[in-house]
Amino acid sequence: MGIILVVYTKHQHQCVLTWKRGFMKGYVNTNIGEVSINNDVIASYAGSAAIECFGIVGMASLSMISGLATLLKKDSLSKGVDILIENNEITVKLHIIVAYGVSISAVAENLIENVTYKVEEFTGMKVKNIYVYVEGVRVVD
User: What is the CATH number of the domain that holds 62?
Assistant: First the structure.
């Protein structure tokens, strides 16, 4: 089976994005100082929020050799998430595997809402965009 790729943005548009890997950290200013949040921390949190959603079997990692999607274990969720922070706004790319028989658009909409809410509450920063890449479909018992 090949890779299924569907991209939905937070604003219900399908699009193609030229992606640069971001090395910036997020910063939150408080009344007693500044908090720096590493991208890997945000990626792990976003991955955890994603797998809570109905219809999500798990996060995916693509094999560079075969091009096949691999279901990630719970301790590797951040590998299925890319984070880019620019001007203290977060862009999230989620690589997911969905359950067979679910509505991908409904799952993506729910996923975007849940991850946006949880990441904004967790970081104190605005989520600018979320891109959802459906990398595979699995039959769930």
Answer: 3.30.70.1350
